Amino acid sequence: DDDVVYGPTTISRWSYGCSKAIDEWLALGHAQRDDLPVVIARFFNTVGPRQVGRYGMVVPRFVEAALTGEALTVHGDGQQQRCFADVRDVAAVLPGLLHEPSALGRVFNIGSDREVSIMQLAETILRELDSASPIVTLPYEEVFGSNFEDLRRRRPNLQRVRSTVGFDAATPLETTIRDVAEWLSERVAGRPEAKR
Predict the structure, then answer these.
(1) Are 64 and 125 in contact (CB under 8 A)?
(2) Residue 192: pLDDT band with limits 50, 70, 90
(3) Is 16 a catalytic residue?
(4) Which residue of the set 6, 16, 55, 140 is catalytic?
């Protein structure tokens, strides 16, 4: 229920958040006008097996690099804070939200509130996978151009989902990393270049 502040329209990064906000307004408008049963879930960095590195998904990108001996590329200084939730914890809470009458017409943040810096994430992945891959940093400008902004800290407030359906993202990040690695190992082994 907090006020929302986005960056200027000249920075394309903010279109992502704005488009999701418009979807919420439309859904809530239909709920009010048409009595449509709507529950809105905002997913924060949901990760797990079968997720690939397209669209900037950092955990599978880092895990794949660690498995193949490539460098883990950290954008910026790596001190930006994020929270990662295992997809199995996230998926498990959704039926409860859909069947809880008090959830109708409300917005819920779904994720973990355990913060880790991107640099700490890279180090954890290397440690969990016993990888000797190096970590390199690249300035945002080199990756995204000069017209890019990022949030230094993204931590969801989970009080509403906890009080409504008792949600807890209980799976440790280390477990998720190992499970992502197991799944990606099978994919990497199946590539034609890996069979040479």
Answers:
(1) no
(2) low
(3) yes
(4) 16
